[in-house]
Amino acid sequence: ALPISKRHIPPSGSVPSGGRARGGISYMRIGIAQIDTRAGDLEATATRMVALSGTAAEQGADLLVFPMAALTGPLPVRESEQDDFLVDVMDALVRLSEEVSCPCIVPVVGALDGQPAPEAVLVGDEKILPLKMQAYAQSEDAGLADDEDAPAPDLPEFEFGGMRLGVAFTYEDLDDYDDFDIDVDAIIYIA
Predict the structure, then answer these.
(1) pTM of the entire structure?
(2) Helix (H, G, I), strand (E, B), or coil: what is residue 35?
(3) What is the DSSP string of 88-139?
(4) How many CA atoms lie within 13 A of 74 on its CB side?
(5) Could you report the per-residue pLDDT of 4-57, keeping only the tens digit for each?
(6) 72 touches 109 (CB < 8 A)
């Protein structure tokens, strides 16, 4: 069990499952998957992710987080292969959204202007939510995407299980959560 409230850390073993509140404080069990995969073997990797989500759900996890390179590998594919690869990745994410036993954060790596571009995708309950993309769209809507005095425009903040969570891929992301005093209960750091 992993308490994620900055305000209170209960004694070991006292954290209820389901992201529920106890004594006015919210708790959530976050599982961290350890998985050895082969980049690009999307079908086999998705099958293993589904199985791990079943184990995590049986153990009371409210959310399961996979490592950075689990599904796509750490580097994007060549530009000439990117379109087909992204279609295959999306098919794997759709499958995961339909088959996982608990909600999962699945990092994927694409490319933007030839550079690796990580994304954290929340999957489960037949839904797919790209968290960084959502954050960027919200920044655009608020007119903050080009504001140099604002945090990174793709810095995710989202509600899950009654808690506010953030996702960071870099130390700069972590600094932005701190420097801009972004109100989250926990930050999931994926490196």
Answers:
(1) 0.83
(2) coil
(3) HHHHHHHHHHHH-SS-EEEEEEEEETTEEEEEEEEEETTEEEEHHHHHHHHH
(4) 4
(5) 333 333 333 333 335 556 666 768 999 999 998 887 789 999 999 999 999 999
(6) yes
